[in-house]
Write a structure and sequence with these properties.
197 residues; mainly alpha; 10 helices; elongated; disordered N terminus
Length: 197
C-alpha cells in the first residue's frame, strides 16, 4: 500500500512566532538592534509573516520588553518570599534595580530615545499596561491572602507604582537611564505603607 503524504509538498514549515520573539529578545539582551527583516531572514520567514505576528517593529520591541518584565517580576517575587507590603516593595525594588542595570535597555534608549520612551511608557502601548497588570496581581494576591490592605484599589496602586518607576528610572531630558533607585524605593515604600529602612 502506498504511503500517504501527511504534509504539503514544498518548503518545510517555517519558524514560529515564539522563535521570532526569542530571537528578538536575544538581540535586545545582547544590546544589538532588533531588526525585523534580519530576524525574518534568519528564521526563514516572509516579512509578511512577521508583520502579521507583530505589525510593527515598535510592537515587537514592546512584546519583548513586556514579556521580559512579566517574567522577571514573577521570578523575583518567587525568590523574595515573605508576604505583605514588605514582600511587595522588595519585589518591586529588585525589579527596578534590574531595569536600571539592563544594558540592552540603555542601548535602546541611547539609540532610539523617543521611540524607546514611547514603547516603555505609553498607556496605549504593550509594556506599561502589562507591567501594571502584573503588579496589580501581586497586590491582589496579598489582599486575598489577608497579608495586605492597600490604601487604594490594586489597579490604581499598581498604576501609581509603575508610573513612579518610569519617572525615576527613565530620563527623557538626557539619553539614558537615570536609575534613581534609592529615592524611588522610598516613595514606593511610602505608597505601600512600608516603614523606611
Amino acid at each position: 500500500m502506498a504511503q500517504v503524504a501527511t504534509r504539503r509538498p514544498g518548503r518545510p514549515a517555517a519558524s514560529t512566532r515564539q522563535a521570532a520573539l526569542d530571537l528578538a529578545t536575544e538581540r535586545f539582551l545582547a544590546s544589538e538592534r532588533v531588526d525585523v527583516q534580519a530576524i525574518a531572514r534568519e528564521l526563514g520567514l516572509a516579512r509578511a509573516t512577521m508583520h502579521r505576528w507583530f505589525q510593527t517593529r515598535e510592537l515587537l520591541l514592546g512584546e519583548v520588553l513586556a514579556t521580559l518584565a512579566e517574567g522577571r517580576i514573577q521570578a523575583i517575587r518567587l525568590q523574595t518570599g515573605g508576604s505583605g507590603p514588605q514582600a511587595l516593595i522588595e519585589t518591586i525594588d529588585r525589579f527596578n534595580r534590574e531595569v536600571a542595570a539592563t544594558r540592552g535597555l540603555s542601548t535602546l534608549l541611547a539609540q532610539e530615545q523617543e521611540r524607546a520612551l514611547r514603547i516603555l511608557t505609553s498607556s496605549a502601548g504593550v509594556v506599561q499596561p502589562r507591567v501594571v497588570a502584573i503588579v496589580a496581581r501581586l497586590i491582589d494576591a496579598e489582599m486575598k491572602a489577608g497579608t495586605y490592605e492597600p490604601p487604594t484599589p490594586p489597579d490604581v496602586l499598581a498604576y501609581a507604582l509603575v508610573r513612579l518607576g518610569e519617572a525615576f528610572l527613565y530620563n527623557d531630558a538626557i539619553v539614558g537611564i537615570r536609575g534613581d533607585t534609592e529615592r524611588l524605593r522610598q516613595v514606593e515604600a511610602a505608597l505601600l505603607g512600608v516603614p523606611a529602612r
